[in-house]
């Protein structure tokens, strides 16, 4: 979950893209401001990383933990 113009989101997206490329895993980014429900749920904590539709973390990517969750 991201937001346009959010520097932390840009950093997190780059980290997730790199990690997922290393592992051969697909991923996508969703702008929370495009949906009022998502904005209400995640808007104050972006970036938020979900794995299998469950919240995995927010504000920063914990690389070792994310790699473990994706393998």
Automatic annotation (TrEMBL):
InterPro entries: Glutaredoxin-like, Thioredoxin-like_sf. It comes from the Bacteria. Pfam families: Glrx-like (PF05768). This is Glutaredoxin-like domain.
């Amino acid at each position: 979950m991201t937001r346009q113009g959010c520097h932390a989101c840009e950093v997190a997206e780059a980290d997730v893209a790199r990690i997922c490329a290393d592992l051969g895993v697909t991923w996508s980014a969703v702008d929370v401001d495009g949906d009022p429900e998502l904005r209400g749920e995640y808007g104050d904590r972006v970036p938020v990383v979900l794995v299998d539709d469950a919240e995995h973390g927010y504000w920063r990517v914990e690389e070792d933990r994310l790699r473990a969750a994706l393998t």
